[in-house]
What does this fold into?
Amino acid sequence: MPASMREALGRWARTLRRVAGMPDYAAYVAHLRRCHPERTVPDERAFYEEYVTARYGDGPTRCC
Amino acid sequence: MTAILWALVALAGAGAWAVLALARGETVSAAWLVLAAVGTYLVGYRFYSRFLARRVFGLDDRRATPAERLANGRDFVPTGRWVLFGHHFAAIAGAGPLVGPVLAAQFGYLPGTIWIVFGVVLGGAVQDFVILFASTRRDGKSLGQMAREEIGPLTGYLAMAAVLAIMIILLAVLALIVVNALRDSPWGLFTILCTIPIALLMGFWMKVWRPGRTLEATAVGVALLLVSLVAGRWVSTSPALAAWFSWSPLTIAYAMIGYGFVASVLPVWMLLCPRDYLSTFVKIGTILLLAVAILVLLPPLRLPALTRFTDGTGPIFAGKLFPFAFITIACGAISGFHALVASGTTPKMLTRESDARLIGYGGMLMESFVAIMALCAAAVLEPGVYFAMNAPASALGTTLASAAEAVRGWGFTVTPADLQALAAQMGERTLVARTGGAPSLAVGMATIFGGAFGRGLSAIWYHFAIMFEALFILTTVDTGTRVGRFMLQDFAGHIWKPLGRTSWYPASIVASLLVVGGWGWFLVQGVLDPLGGINTLWPLFGISNQLLAAVALCVGTTVLVRAGKARYAWTTILPLVWLLLVTLTAGWQKIFAADPALGFLSRIRVTLAQVAAGTLDPATGSRIVFNYRLDAVVAALFMAVTVLVVAASAWEWVMIIRRRRPAVSRETPFVESAYAGQHA
It folds into this structure.
């Protein structure tokens, strides 16, 4: 797959994930590296579990 | 040039309204309905939402949003506005805008259309927009927190209690809709049962086997879902399997109660989260498909503009056009529940303040359009079929012949053979008295999809539509039960700390049981209700949802008054006054009306008379009496909370306007945005 196509696919995937409220591990890692370089980066599994627990634990995410 | 363009848009909309309003006796194309709605939305968005954004709220792109200031890469994330629009829309649009308009079609298509379109432009979209704006200026605070801080602690607690009560009624009525759609329907039940193992598979896939591969797992889930949809036909045609999957309404109700409990206690990654992903993609896909199909087909509307049931004698739900058309359609016109999302995840993702206009106001216009499509889907049915499907069994009798006879008595025609043929075409044994709106919406969607994408697949389309509705209703039941449990634990935590710990099993099991028991009680009583349950529960849900909207508009008005913008407070007070008029009238009539089909108290009198005359056994009688008393108390409580919140808020406004109290704004102080000056 050419690099440009892979990049476009990645963009689409990121959009779909955001729309559905799915976690975005790459974005989180980028944020940590940029803003908190001293912190250790959690592995993807730990991040995933923490993210979904927080998301569904705090107020309604879906309406009627 | 642009002025001419907007004049044309306005003219086209007005012309379409004229066609709809003047059409009598002939069938009208859905094109006029869509044109009238879209024309009004465009004008409302271009002019009214711009006025709100610039003059009333003063949205300022130089001010950094919470997503920028508090960015943490998880919930506070600056997000592109079209992506966030999709995210917000997927969160607010559920079963409400699909079911309400179908039920309100009892009055004809015109009252529903007018309310959905004008209600959203002047009310619903304003509410969503003002709450999103207020929360964005307050670090993404929730509606309850804002009510407490802006109006007062009592109002805050009342608002929280109201949200919990609404949740209970909402979950009960949504679950009842699913029960009515799946009872004695092996195909539908099989497909929905399959979603549980599919969700578990996805859950382990995303968490254990391939961490974080959410899209991959969802794609597999959607594919398996379509396989189970097709396999459902095979189940329904095999006599042995069909018998296995034909459940009675009561069995389905108890199964859903058990499921809700398990889903609330299990870790979210296992069941709840994968089902949410599945339902989000199915929902967005299906809504897009429906929009394309309606625009391609532009089907004729068979339902009249107005029916004789505007006088309050309708079989689907009791009550006159005013106020019950405005209660039956809450979501799609104005929905208080949205205030919870607009003050939840969305404000934490806004990149620029000005994006709130597209997302808050525009997102709600989009939901309103979904409601218009649902109305189209109901109105393409023959009126006889529509009433035979949506009236309760008590009005239709037990046979196809008695149903056809009852429909004839209401002035519409349908033959027993028609009803039989339609059921067979949709792959069901019977479609008579499938109350709750979902099945008739599914028949309407099957008709539209069949017309647009080729006939002969009606049964698949019908069950696809049922699967789509049941899937996201069950997602609301999952997440709603869990949210209800957290709220209950939050209350209990004030009394004894450990009760508030959401990860402590004993507390979370007890709280889950209480929430499930609450909505489960109303669900079971709805299943047993001789009038069909929807007649009682849907108006209660509408009243409670509008009540929450009234609370949200009170918060919005207070925010404006505190910011020294009292001269613009009419933008939120106008819909608030209308909502008060509607909810209080409806609540009063539901309790005190002399018509036993409408008023809870008259219904109690009739039941007691039946017991005294020996036509009803005392045990059933006392259960019915208890339930209607409970319903009356719930309606009275909703009304009392509304009056208290509005009175407390109005007092606050008067004090501030008369300068007895300082107009202190509780906005987070201004911080310059790094995006300032860049173009969106």
